[in-house]
Design brief:
Layout (H helix, E strand, L loop, with lengths): L1 E10 L2 E11 L4 E5 L6 H8 L7 E6 L3 E4 L11 H5 L7 H11 L1 H5 L10 H13 L5 E5 L7 H18 L2 E5 L3 H7 L2 E6 L2 E7 H6 L2
Bound molecules: adenosine-5'-diphosphate (2 copies).
Pfam families: ABC_tran (PF00005)
Family: Belongs to the ABC transporter superfamily.
GO molecular function: ATP binding; ATP hydrolysis activity; branched-chain amino acid transmembrane transporter activity
Length: about 210
Amino acid sequence: MLHITDLVVRYGSAVALDGVSLNVGRGEMVALVGPNGAGKSTLINTVSGLLKPASGSVVVEGTVAQVPEGRQMFPDMSVEDNLLLGGWSIRNRQLDEVFDLLPDLAGMRRRKAGRLSGGQQQMVAIGRALMARPDLLAIDELSLGLAPIVVDELAEHLRYLNTERGTAVLLVEQEVTLAFNLCARACVLEAGRVVVTGPSSELAESD
Ligand code: ADP
Ligand code: ADP
């Protein structure tokens, strides 16, 4: 449902992605790993439409929503208002659906987002992306700054979402163990190029 072909993305004259091809199937969870500066964020931002390719193509069959790096809350607004920021017209149905998927959010809906823990904020960021009812959820750094136990809980929610809704996931993640556990397939990027794509179990063995 996601087809990336020969993708080139530049910042000015600097080439951040240099001919990347990657496919994600319907309902598949794929991890995007690699060192700092490899182009992971650039790739996910291009999939979400925030960046324009210099050449090549990104085709998404369906809706994509992004959980941005650093979560990007509006700290003085309530959880509910953070969820509603997209201006969804059928707000209540959408909210109820998201609260069904992430029940913890219902209990904190009136709280200011800026007062929440990092893990709770990440849940809000995921919930906000789910308001778009995405077929593909693109997540930039699920675990950033969070304790492992909190990350495990978030990962459990993503598994549930994937099983229950068939939502595909493209996960940029520094924590390779987490990425490989959550996603059956992984793509390793280095210096703007795909080094290898394959089953996470095989990539884990070969380091
Ligand atoms: P990663 O997410 O894997 O750490 P990025 O996609 O953030 O990698 O960055 C890929 C390359 O593009 C790096 O060399 C980085 O310095 C560069 N880059 C990222 N964002 C910008 C930007 N806004 N302007 C210029 N260069 C950028
Ligand atoms: P990550 O690689 O995890 O996305 P970075 O530290 O590379 O984080 O980037 C943080 C922010 O700085 C991003 O918004 C990115 O676009 C921007 N950025 C990264 N590298 C450059 C660069 N060389 N010039 C300008 N902006 C950059």
